[in-house]
Amino acid sequence: MKALLPWMEVDAVDVALYMPTDAFIDSALLCSSYAKAAARLGVTLRPNCKVKEIMVEGERICGVRLADGECVEAPVVVNAAGSWANLLMRPLQVGLPFTPVRSHFWITKIDEGRFPAGHPFTVIPDARAFTRSDVGALIIGLRESHCQAFDPAAMTEKLEDFDFHKEAEWTVLDECASLLKPYLHDIEDLPIAHYMAGPSCYVPDAMFIIGAVHAYKGLFTVTGCCGGGVAAGGGMGRLASELIAGEQPFVNPALFAPERFGEVNPFSPEFQQRCADARSNKKGG
């Protein structure tokens, strides 16, 4: 373990599991690769093209209206707008069972001897933490005991304009540092170069939201990634495509049905708190 993770205090570890075939990936490059593969298969891409509303005729989907007023007709629409998905659903009086919850991580200053590039991604359940290498630095992700949810109606068009209460940077680090200290002994003195915060779409049962929205024929959704969208995105897309095409799903779709909670109001503080609680004290990857 010390050879793989030079910074790890191995005496603090009772059991370790190494999976050499696991990997991490640049999410921007992954999305770009999906887009290029889709284009090769004949998909028309419209980048930087904002959707203003989902159009319906009675109880049937008929397309989307873009921000510039253009209408794109379509018998099937998939709402995969992430943190903004419920804003598109609100005029249809449909609530998807998730809310944006703050995720954040810290990046140390570069120390290539201690944090070599490409060292394994780690999950440390007892510290509610994960780490990964970042070109000679260490990314540290921590889950606080009481996570911060956000009202979807407050989301701005650009994430860089949204207030994720970044003043909590040191408060959360102080809360969680004691849990990580046995494994990273000098965390209290470790130079921190960057702090990043953003929204993860959490669901009360920490399961994805994939499938048909039965109030409108032709309307589907893929959202509620619960922080696992990069790893699970391929499978989420596969399940959605099988449901749309009427094929036999490769997994049980009832586990991810958008309406499994019944009618919900994702704009209510009470429901948002349920979603935040699903992330609070999370120990998984």
How is this structure best summarized?
The chain is α+β, with helices and mostly antiparallel strands and 285 residues long. The chain is built from five helices and eleven strands; from the N terminus they run αββββαββββαβββαα. The radius of gyration is 21 Å and the shape is globular.
How is this structure best described in words?
The structure is a single chain. This protein has 285 residues and is an alpha+beta fold. The chain folds into two domains: 28-98 and 204-279, FAD/NAD(P)-binding domain; 101-201, D-Amino Acid Oxidase, subunit A, domain 2 (D-Amino Acid Oxidase, Chain A, domain 2, 2-Layer Sandwich). The chain contains five helices and eleven strands. The protein has helices spanning 27-40, 85-89, 169-180, 229-245, 269-279, and strands at residues 51-57, 60-66, 71-73, 77-79, 99-108, 122-124, 129-134, 137-142, 192-202, 209-212, 219-223. The protein has a five-stranded antiparallel β-sheet. Strand 10 (209-212) and strand 11 form a beta hairpin. The protein starts with 26 loop residues before the first helix and ends in a 6-residue tail after the last helix. The model has no long low-confidence stretch (mean pLDDT 93).
